[in-house]
Specification:
Blueprint lengths: L1 H5 L6 H33 L4 H49 L3 H7 L1 H44 L4 H44 L1 H6 L3 H27 L1 H27 L6 H43 L19 E8 L10 E8 L4 E6 L5 H8 L7 E6 L2 E2 L5 H7 E4 L8 E2 H5 L8 H10 L3 H6 L7 E2 L8 H13 L5 E5 L7 H14 L4 E6 L2 H7 L2 E6 L2 E7 H4 L4 H10 L4
Parallel strand pairs: 3-10, 3-11, 6-9, 9-10
Antiparallel strand pairs: 1-2, 1-4, 4-5, 7-8, 11-12
Length: about 575
Amino acid sequence: MLSVLAKSIREYKKPSLLAPLLVSGEVVMECIIPFVTANLVNQIKAGCSIGVIVQYGAVLVVMAGLSLTFGALAGSACATASCGFARNLRKDMFYKIQDYSFENIDKFSVSSLVTRMTTDVTNVQMAYMMIVRTAIRCPLMLVFSFAMAFIMGGKMAVIFLLVIPVLGVGLALVVRSTMPLFKRVFKKYDALNSSVQENIKGMRVVKSYVREEYEKQKFGAAAADVQRDFTRAERILAFNNPLMQFCVYAVMVFVLSFGSYTVITSRGLALDVGQMSSMLTYSFQILMSLMMLSMVFVMITMASESAQRIVEVLCEESALQSPENPVREVKDGSIDFDNVSFKYAKTAERMALSGIDLHIRSGETIGIIGGTGSSKSTLIQLISRLYDATEGSVRVGGVDVRSYDLEALRDQVAVVLQKNVLFSGSIRENLRWGNKDATDAEMEEACRLAQADEFIRQFPDGYDTHIEQGGANVSGGQKQRLCIARALAVEPEVLLMDEPASALDPIATRHVEESVMELKSGLTIVIVTHSMQQAARISDETAFFYMGRLIEHGETDVIFTRPAQKQTEDYITGRFG
């Protein structure tokens, strides 16, 4: 786990190494100051001159200044290192997620990935900040202070050897008790974020059915569940503080009582006033170091589960990989399914697609028809290799899709999804999602083919019109035609359209169909639809699916020559889906 996380330090190695060095200088100064102060007290007690006092005072001022400088520089280096580390972690995770297949996304869930990139990274950042500064400072302060206390106080320093095991055992028990709780609470964070995400995305439905109170209660229950686990963890962690306080005061009482007794009975021979004052300072430094060290352990305890969750994301390999020597050019738009079967999970009992043999000629338009749950969308996702076939093979341009470079394949197999997304930015920027190097003329041609150029020019800013997130400021038909134009901007060999008119009115649907008819020359089009009438109007061939099986495939004119009543009966009874 540590080796994986360390790869994200990169350009912040220098401040990460510099911070401990500066902290070491700060600790050395802080540990020497009480020693010098003790000598000053003894000099004053012996009746030294004012000149000696000034010399000691100057030395103390310089040492205090150095300690302050080292501390400030260490804090700056620590902040730079921890914030930079967190930035790199988020960047590495985001880049990794971009390479994930749908199968990987399904494994983690969107809400879990969001939690890992926000809450978990923040926890790791805080732990790293403590590690490069506090976790270095505390052990050094502990060792140096104990050494100086032994030098100054002799046998009295044994008290620290008795206290440290007590604190160590207490800390180990606290960590052991809280680790399972933190592990459980982060999973509940994922569920909480999932609930929020679902509610916000479905806000219109919530308000339509007046279910605000129900959603509030559901969220409140999830939040209370997280609170209970965190409260239990915090209660256990709270034992750390009184344990530390007990040890601090026990040591202070021992040093004050036994030290005073030794000073008085030995008349300063075994222990003088200066040594006793330095012992008090060192005891305070030692115990504060222990207290800070316990806080570091608490933070690391919280962050360890977060770190593990981050490493899971970074170590996850995409289920889809380009081969070593990939094919980079799609020869034509032909598509062949050879005895293809597919299921979404290895443990799934039923195949989503079973024994599909389907052959689509280059330049052909085929309508894929079937009822809900007949795996029509699954079929086209195999063409662009969003998933890999479980059995059999899918070929595009005569080559198995698993032999292509993924980027090259998807550049030539464009997809218009049922629920397409437009991103915030101008129309021009959205179109260049398809082809970042597309010229204005190429974009305008793509929009003309998609029946989008006309309404775009009616906007005051034309192609520079700003699109709100999700395309909220354009109609459903306009949004769909812009998505078609975006797909066409890559000049693909194959265009896959999944229910492109499912949520559109008849006029907008007609515009989309006109777009398809305009595109038919030389481009292979696979259009998924529930409408037999739509398939009859625009497709050369039609394939009927039912429960993941291909029931019938043939030329549209032949299939739809049967009486309309017979077609309807076949469709309803399930022969075609």
